[in-house]
Design goal:
20 helices; single chain; Neurolysin, domain 3; 3-stranded mixed β-sheet
């Protein structure tokens, strides 16, 4: 056990450095002064160098060879498997690539914030071009290490269990289905009266509402917090899970939906197996699994009729709202209104996958060198017009709307729709196991739901792969039929 114990110490150190990195990233995106960005980029670069040095050394390779002769329990073998994944990634990449990617990501993200405010892609164009060149270098190096395509190599940074061919088959089945069901939903929803909200909740009320439901669903504020940023996200580290949202004074619920989504992520992080804290096996699974947890809370729970009953009661009680626009039926129709629009994070669950399919296609073209950065806005607008059938009005509603590419997260987008498919499959099984689930949600009782998620998913960490957890919980591999049936039953039947 000598070699394995030594490996655990090394990866413990790596995890602690990652926690520091994550907190600094959160600070960068929330409260850090604008002119501090360049120095923060240096700090983050140094931390990434430290992570690289901690793992990508010859001693680890020797320890991996030595550990082969040691007898471990099954969970230790799982931890060792995850160690090897992290080692393969960092040992394959030269330190220079790590350094450049870290510096350019921090700088590019800063320019993106200005560009988005100004609705002008040209402000960030050159920075993005430099960042993408490094990402292409990374993808080519990793493709050799992983023995896969360059784009699949980037996907592995976020999801190990699915490759681009598997994703493409799922999307090829999903796209025509969405187009077909969308037309049917439009016909049906045109007959349904929706009372517009005349006076929106104040930003203070929106924040209060979010905190209330975060607590109800199970978020532990002694180990986390809620703040504001330009783009909602969940970050932080062990025992310090940070959620952010963005307020919209013209929309009572856009922030609330974002918070519910991020709370799904946060619950996962707060309920990871404590026995494996600061070990690879104790970290969350791939991002498809992570997104399944956020979308489970946001879509399967928050947008249900049962939840809207409880939301309506809460709004009336907390803010003394009496008019008909705040009834549960009206709120249900507001939250489940299906309409094609520019913004991914504000999209309904029916049209949301179209945003992801479009980005997935663009990402592959970027990595395959089919487009240059200066062509990105025009290509984005062309692809958007093909999918959504109307024109993009400005860059902020187009290629500048998401932070991902400007933060170096190329390959992340497909995990959102993979997560939606997984969430619907989990939900189907959970509803068979928890009796009177709708009644419990309508009364504000989420304990059995969070307990079920913790037992079946959260507590597994990375001890099991995404595909293994899916099979364990649902007795089936990923099957798109659950998502199709869920949308059909909810919106058509």
């Amino acid at each position: 056990m000598r070699a394995y114990k030594k490996l655990k110490k090394i990866f413990y150190r790596y995890s602690i450095i990652s926690d520091i990195d994550n907190i600094l990233q959160w600070d960068l995106s929330t409260v850090m002064p604008v002119k501090s960005r360049k120095n923060r980029a240096k700090q983050l670069t140094l931390l990434n160098e430290m992570k690289h040095e901690a793992i990508s050394n010859l001693e680890i390779r020797e320890l991996f060879n030595e550990v082969e002769s040691e007898e471990l329990i099954p969970d230790d073998y799982s931890n060792l498997r995850e160690m090897k994944k992290q080692y393969l990634y960092l040992s394959a990449l030269p330190l220079d690539i790590i350094r450049k990617k870290s510096m350019l990501s921090a700088e590019c993200e800063g320019k993106w914030r200005l560009a988005k405010t100004k609705k002008n892609f040209n402000i960030v164009k050159n920075d993005l071009a430099k960042l993408f060149e490094v990402l292409k270098e990374e993808s080519n190096i990793l493709s050799d290490a992983y023995e896969c395509s360059p784009y699949d190599a980037l996907l592995k940074n976020y999801e190990y269990s699915f490759n681009s061919n598997e994703i493409q088959k799922l999307f090829d089945s999903l796209h025509p289905f969405i187009n077909k069901i969308y037309s049917k939903i439009q016909i049906k929803q045109k007959k349904e009266e929706v009372i517009p909200i005349k006076e929106n909740l104040t930003e203070e009320q929106q924040f209060e509402l979010s905190v209330y439901f975060m607590k109800k669903i199970g978020f532990d504020f002694k180990r986390g917090r809620l703040d504001q940023s330009a783009h909602p996200f969940c970050g932080g580290g062990f025992e310090d899970v940070r959620i952010t949202t963005r307020m919209n004074k013209n929309d009572s619920f856009s922030s609330f939906e974002a918070v519910m989504h991020e709370t799904g992520h946060a619950l996962y992080e707060q309920n990871l197996p404590r026995k494996w804290t600061h070990q690879p096996a104790g970290s969350s699974g791939g991002m498809a699994l992570h997104e399944s947890q956020s979308l489970f809370i946001e879509m399967q729970i928050m947008k249900s009729k049962a939840f809207q009953n409880y939301l309506s009661d809460t709004l009336r009680r907390k803010f003394n709202l009496k008019s008909n626009e705040w009834t549960s039926n009206n709120l249900y129709r507001i939250f489940n209104k299906v309409a094609k629009d520019y913004i991914r994070v504000e999209a309904d669950e029916v049209t949301y996958p179209l945003h992801i399919i479009m980005r997935f296609n663009l990402e592959k073209k970027i990595i395959d060198n089919d487009i240059s950065i200066r062509e990105l806005p025009d290509l984005w607008n062309e692809e958007f017009k093909k999918v959504f059938k109307f024109d993009v009005d400005n860059d902020a509603n187009g290629c500048l709307q998401d932070i991902h590419w400007y933060a170096g997260l190329l390959g992340y987008f497909p995990t959102y729709t993979l997560g939606a498919l997984i969430a619907s499959q989990f939900s189907y099984c959970m509803k068979k196991q928890i009796l009177q689930i709708d009644e419990k949600i309508a009364s504000g009782d989420f304990k059995e739901i969070t307990k079920w998620l913790k037992k079946n998913i959260h507590s597994k960490g990375s001890l099991r792969s995404t595909k293994e957890i899916l099979k364990d919980v649902t007795n089936s591999k990923l099957n798109i039929k659950f998502f199709k049936e869920y949308l059909t039953n909810k919106y058509i039947n």
